[in-house]
Inverse folding.
């Protein structure tokens, strides 16, 4: 599997790459090219894993742009009672 630095791609690049991967996967093709680079995968599942990773990176960037912070699941839990009785 190819290793790439996701920071070197813009958000638009990542979206275009993900779209291209999913289009090729839907056609039953296990390879695709983007910006002069060719990528070949061993199975449609491998293509889906790459598309999922790109989706995750897109979500992280969008959350960062919006100023959202990850929730600490190990931190204290604050419960809020329902309003009214």
């Amino acid at each position: 599997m190819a290793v790439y630095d996701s920071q070197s791609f813009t958000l638009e690049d990542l979206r275009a790459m993900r779209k291209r991967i999913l289009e090729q996967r839907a056609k039953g093709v296990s390879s695709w090219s983007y910006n002069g680079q060719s990528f070949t995968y061993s199975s449609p599942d491998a293509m889906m894993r790459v598309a999922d990773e790109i989706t995750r990176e897109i979500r992280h960037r969008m959350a960062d742009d919006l100023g959202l912070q990850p929730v600490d699941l190990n931190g204290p839990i604050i419960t809020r009672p329902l309003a009214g009785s």
Remarks:
- The first strand starts at residue 31 and ends at 34.
- The mean pLDDT is 82.
